[in-house]
UniProtKB/TrEMBL annotation:
<feature type="domain" description="Ig-like">
    <location>
        <begin position="518"/>
        <end position="620"/>
    </location>
</feature>
<keyword id="KW-0812">Transmembrane</keyword>
<dbReference type="GO" id="GO:0030424">
    <property type="term" value="C:axon"/>
</dbReference>
<keyword id="KW-1015">Disulfide bond</keyword>
<dbReference type="GO" id="GO:0050808">
    <property type="term" value="P:synapse organization"/>
</dbReference>
<keyword id="KW-0677">Repeat</keyword>
<feature type="domain" description="Ig-like">
    <location>
        <begin position="422"/>
        <end position="501"/>
    </location>
</feature>
<keyword id="KW-0732">Signal</keyword>
<keyword id="KW-1133">Transmembrane helix</keyword>
<feature type="domain" description="Ig-like">
    <location>
        <begin position="626"/>
        <end position="714"/>
    </location>
</feature>
<feature type="region of interest" description="Disordered">
    <location>
        <begin position="96"/>
        <end position="124"/>
    </location>
</feature>
<dbReference type="GO" id="GO:0007156">
    <property type="term" value="P:homophilic cell adhesion via plasma membrane adhesion molecules"/>
</dbReference>
<keyword id="KW-0472">Membrane</keyword>
<feature type="compositionally biased region" description="Polar residues">
    <location>
        <begin position="108"/>
        <end position="117"/>
    </location>
</feature>
<feature type="domain" description="Ig-like">
    <location>
        <begin position="219"/>
        <end position="314"/>
    </location>
</feature>
<keyword id="KW-0433">Leucine-rich repeat</keyword>
<dbReference type="InterPro" id="IPR007110">
    <property type="entry name" value="Ig-like_dom"/>
</dbReference>
Amino acid sequence: MSTTGGMDPALRATIQEAPRINHIPDDQSQDQQVTTSEPRRISEFHPATQPPYYKPAPFVSDHPTSQAITMSSEISPSATATPTPTVAIQTLPFTEGLRTSRPDVSRNHQLPGQGSTLRGKPQITKSDFQTFTVEAETDAQLPCGAEGEPMPFLSWTKVASGASIAKNTRVHRFEVHPNGTLTIRNTQPMDGGQYLCTVQNQYGTDQMLLNMVVLSRHPRVLQPRHRDIAVRLGGDVNVECNVEGHPTPRVTWVLPNHVHVAAAAPFGVSPQQHVAVFSNGTLRISQATLTDRGIYKCIGSSAAGADTVSVRLSVSALPPVIQQKQHENTTLTEGGTAYIHCTATGAPQPVIRWTTPDGVKLTASQFVTARNLLVFPNGTLYMRGLGPGNAGRYECSASNGVASSTRTVTLSIKRNLSSAKASITLSSPQRTDVVYGGRLLLNCVAKGEPEPRIIWRTPSNKLVDAQYSFDPRIKVFPNGTLTIHSVTDKDSGDYLCVARNKMGDDYVLLRVDVLTKPAKIEQKQHRSSQEVVYGGDLKVDCVASGLPNPEISWALPDGTMVNPVKQRDSVSRGRTRRYVVFDNGTLFFNHVGMPEEGDYTCYAENQLGKDEMKVRVKVKVASSPPQIQDKDQKIVKVFYGETMTLRCHTTGEPKPVITWISPTHRVISPAIDKYQVLDDGTLVVQRVQRFDGGNYTCMSRNNAGQDNKVVRLDVLVTSPND
């Protein structure tokens, strides 16, 4: 601007639109200076240091501000004190006017009685660092010292938002000290970016741009994303949740009822009181109830973000319930057959045990030949050829991890008495449960004279007897007992037993329910990883339950699928293998090496569902030096022209490398047709000649050491007449 009040053309063009501060990218030179005619400041700084022509803007804002101002305000020494037009800028949510003035600074003013004082534009003492790096949740200090007379006004501006704060001011976490240093307490990732320090007085303005980088690492929960955990009713369970990240994440559990429980020292407690979170993030549930089952979420959070995993908790609380009467008295005819039933339900599945009158204990599928006793898998006690010695009190017990239940049957044996009309004297209970794929057995014993004929009507309204059956799975024995193998859900329904002779009929209606259950692998949470010694044996169990019985298959680390059926096919075709899959689902490997390391997945599947379990196998290598076993072979004699073999069986870990040295002290190469080195280290020499005689050395090496063995070969030469 000229001394006559005219406006410089360049400046005139600048103030025709709202002035702004151009955002300086982080990749540009840090030495670049950005100047402004007036910095924006908060209104809370000390009034004594606020110039009368300055209107501040807030430094801390919930909304980004508009572009800041970029214009240079150099003061000409010849200019007169003429105020410049007001320039307005808009910030969200604040709208403030910014006004600058040009006082008369064309010469040094001298007040009466005073000497001349040198005055001029302020200058920032530059920082040695243009970029400051701090860790999240620590304090950061950005220096900005300035010189000038009169004392310049200092303020800091965050370039990204345009918010400003003046010297000697503190707002929340931000404070500018008297020396101009900006302190940011408990830095957060959002605090990173460029900060502009501005100093000014009536002679001009100076600025410095600094960049601050806040280091942080996103939280990560180390446990699997989804887990299933089971606990017994009234028991205790601990669920781990380990979180890593920077700054240290805060662990919070969300219960199935949406209650939030945070980790605290020594632990946090939920309103339920029996649910606690330890300082390491572990969730503990004491005396679990049915209301505790559901999905639990663990959240690890910090200023850098959040991560979450979920855990499904199941509470098993079904005590055994025996389906038959608790006490029963039954009388059977001497020489007949007895079926005493004892089926039970519960979770876990109850185990059935029988105790005979003389104290013999029997379990499912156990047969006592001397007594003609058998317990079927469904718990039914079978006795044939009844006699007086079978009479007495029989006790059935069903137990699981929750409770136990008992049933007693008092059996009486009576002598066989003839009767005229057909009469059913013994039958199975009116309701019988049978597992899918199992064997159904229904008793129907009748007496009469002549001997009655037993006829069964199935749920499909078809008739079967001892002479005829429409289904090969169904058979009726001469005593009237009906059996069905490989039961399916179509076998459910009402079965009618009819006893018939020429004197009359008798019948009984029996109900059969087929129990089904989807495949499920038991105790998956204990099988996440397994370690085996190199060269040792690997055994991984995969116990599955389900109705019908699930089929078990394994996926090896190389993607090969194996199961007991494929295993039998492999054997029938003569292929060699080192693994065995047993019928119970157990996978077995011998002589484990590094190729066996990796993830093994067990699959259990039936018609109702599929379940899987993954086990990570790690092979632990233990080194041992080579050791040649058969050093007693020191001299070998062979006739001229024959084939000679020299043994060199060695052990060691890792597997040693076998090298043979000839009598001429040269390494024997298997590539020569005359020599052959077998896998077990044996050297074979074809068509032995005289020059083949001498000392042969077997050397066995690995990284743990070496061993050697020397064998002398004598070539025997006989005359043609021998």
